[in-house]
Amino acid sequence: MALSLDREAYYRRVKRLYSNWQKGEDEYATIDAIVVSVGVDEETVYAKSTALQTWLFGYELTDTIMVFCEDKILFMASKKKVEFLKQIANSKSNESTNGVPAITLLVREKNESNKANFDKMIEALKGSKNGKRIGVFSKDKFPGEFMNSWNDALGKEGFEKVDISAVVAYTIAVKEDGELALMRKAAAITSEVFTKFLKERVMEIVDADEKVRHSKLAESVEKAIEEKKYLSGADPSTVEMCYPPIIQSGGNYNLKFSVVSEKSYMHFGTVTCAMGIRYKSYCSNLVRTLMVDPPQEMQDNYTFLLQLQEEMLKELRHGVKLCEVYAAVMDMVKKQKPELLSKITKNLGFAMGIEFREGSLVINSKNQYRLKKGMVFSLNVGLSDLNNKEGKKLEEKTYALFIGDSVLVEEDGPATLLTSVKKKVKNVSILLKKEDEEEEEEEKDDPEILLGRSSRTALLTDRTRNELTAEEKRRAHQKELATQLNEEARRRLTEQKGEQQIQKARKSNVSYKNPSLMPKEPHIREMKIYIDKKYETVIMPVFGIATPFHIATIKNISMSVEGDYTYLRINFYCPGSALGRNEGNIFPNPEATFVKEITYRASNIKTPGEQTVPALNLQNAFRIIKEVQKRYKTREAEEKEKEGIVKQDSLVINLNRSNPKLKDLYIRPNIAQKRMQGSLEAHVNGFRFTSVRGDKVDILYNNIKHAVFQPCDGEMIIVLHFHLKNAIMFGKKRHTDVQFYTEVGEITTDLGKHQHMHDRDDLYAEQMEREMRHKLKTAFKNFIEKVESLTKEELEFEVPFRDLGFNGAPYRSTCLLQPTSSALVNCTEWPPFVVTLDEVELIHFERVQFHLKNFDMVIVYKDYSKKVTMINAIPVASLDPIKEWLKCVAYSCDIKYTEGVQSLNWTKIMKTIVDDPEGFFEQGGWSFLEPEGEASAGTDMAAARQQLLGGGNWGSDAEAGESESEIEDETFNPSEEEYEDEEEDSDEDYSSEAEESDYSKESLGSEEESGKDWDELEEEARKADRESRYEEEEERSRTISRKRKGPPHPELWASSQLPQSQPWPGLRPPPRRRGSRRRTPALPSSQF
User: Fold this and answer.
1) What's the Cα-to-Cα distance from 742 to each of 132, 151, 583, 747, rounded to whole Å?
2) Helix 296-315 crosses helix 322-336 at what angle (to 10 degrees)?
3) H or E stretch including 437?
4) Which of 209, 312, 660, 901 might form a disulfide with 786, Cβ 3.0–4.6 angstroms?
5) pLDDT, tens digit, 9 for 90 and up, residues 414-434
6) What 8-state DSSP symbol labels residue 850?
């Protein structure tokens, strides 16, 4: 297959070369011709001569000489290459059109000296302008017979050679759209390989504590680019490394791209990773530093390094000198951290393209070249020879930080990042658990003698001991958090105490500001009820005086017909009457005299001479008042929705067609009654959703609190969810949660359809659904990456950790709640559930008992005026995973958690705390929730607990005033039939704290008996039965003498009038099972 050459690209670029030459800037002004000769040298990777050939033709042409004269261009090459170059050979008719000289092709003879062809080219050089000075690339020296003979022929003529490497590099540094597309692809592949392979591999090595050499890790990266899954769909034959990957750690750092990864083992401290991928001859570069358990000083230095790079991005603008960019960064270092001035890298980056590093376009203090739109730079800033004060080993005492990205220079504003790999501290930090290290040390200290015959027992004992140690450490950390929690909450409430809450008064509506506004209607003069729709006022006769009442003062109205009369009753709002749930019972002047109700009566009988019956006025008044009241309440509801709405900035529309965009999405909540599809597009400062009907919903980046991406793994929809800082209005309602989703499969299934597991249609449908899921995930991920790059990672999307998810019912239905890095969310069900972990003060687990299937989780917020969040019906199997998750979260968010066996009245608890915060914290604060704190806190703590929880529901069906003995008296012994139902109803809320403790003493025995097996316990039970037989007989005789009738059926115990504390004659309740509970048997259906 013949190679094709882009004719238009060649003429466009040659014209640019000649145009710059004719301008005569820098070295171009002194040369008469340009000579470029390329030989064969496999060791040379980058050369200006081959770069120019690739730029013009798209390929490297070895053993080829190019001569650019003022009025002609000569190419000398082999016969095959000449055939290839004939695609661009122009005729005289095309010369003026293209604006470049004509091309002359000379065929190189392999076995001859090529003297004739050399003479033609030398003659052309002499005829170009003055014919004395020729521009060459002085650093490019190719070996070979052909190159040597040409250089000898050129040297005999005595031409003065001028190095034009810098000016030619400046000419080709500005990239065209096609070149930028290739460089974007190269940067995307680099980002993909680093994220999916190199970073993951380093984390695996650290996690598994492997011993891997730097050089071996670098070789594995080179092998990874041969696999298609890391290449973003690119052909592996078009992808190569710009340079061997550079991995450095262990105190030996050289922040240059000319070094090679050492053969030493990787150290788990600071690991610098540098790699660049070349796609279709165009380069990209990426540098990241991965930090294992970084101390605070290291994190601060790394954050400062990010700020320096951000400053560089702002300075890289069209027309700015490279030395000015360098000076701006150095000024920032001098002002903020002058001690790091000697640690920073000497160069801050370089231009890239076909060549990886353009030596003449380096960002340093001396470079006077100006930036141009379309240039691509590798920005690399680093700090070396930094001292780690917390380092104990020699490898840990010295570290370096190095970050780099490929960026594109724009016309206005900061440069654009092409390598969109996250680089914040949290994204490059690898945190290890210190507990694991201590457990490993304890395992190493165990004597080897244990690993003999009883090795299994020894290992189990050791494992249990280690787990208990970890549990003790967790509890110790929770105790520390409890102290911090009380101190922090006390300080916060003390500061808020001075801020008096302004209670909003009920809106006072005035019907008429002056008497002249009252209407002069005949109905008013005739003492009839009149409704003024304009002022929303009902004018009623009171003691013969027309009195106006605003519609807001009317609570409700009713009309009834009794005999010959119609009655219209009007009830008004007044102090003491119940308002709506969210309407405060507050009046501007509560001590005034209020009218509570007015009743009017009118006859249904027509008076002679009258056209209508008198009751018609009341009927019309009733109808119109209802209409006006409905209109007023609708308007008030809309105004109430708008209350507190923070005015958002206007969305800045980006007219560029390449904006990140997702099509065919649904929005929740719906804009209209029916759901509508639309498209979501990212602009300069926010998103805009446009429905097919034309409705628009704008969401600004700075108003997004959490951006969550819920993939379609295990779900029927794929979701982008936005939890907002301030509510926005659309569809006449305010919304804090907005999500955009699309369905990935059939949510409903036709059960009547007969299906077979090997049905071709079903197999094809499943295959299509899998492809659709993959396609949607890829589209959403690309959209997210583009948005994060557009916002410079100010907006980051969080992906829920499905493995850490647990089922619960935050609302009416059970759903899967999944943690993210900063929240606990459920985005697939509606309404959504989002809890920000930074706002959480405390998490309490309720109804945690070993024989219950479910428990509840209560989330208390730092803002005590905010209602607590309750998640019900969490499976008890999820308790330990939730604690493990909270233990990990606690180190970053400091979340305290407690557990108890009772359900608490949180409304009363929070009201007590807010009313008297000082008294609450003086009596121990949140320590009343600690199970061991109850026994050790003494009477003061018990009194505080009683004060906080008095009258609340503590998990008992009995009333708050009932004592322990009363609860015991009302507890029935269950029948044998009910034992079968206990497992089903075990998650019910049934027993009080006193009953639970008493029962545990009865069923489980004392502490001395806790170690006995079931046989011993049954023997003791039989012995106790024999001893109590005499007492039972006496009790039976008393019962029989009291009632001669036979005992009632066991199912009717609940309705019996006998004292419940006495057992029934001849009936003995079945023995209590360990872990069973007392419960009152339900009445049979026959009793109702």
Assistant:
1) 71, 67, 39, 12
2) 150
3) helix 434-445
4) 660
5) 898 899 888 988 889 888 755
6) T
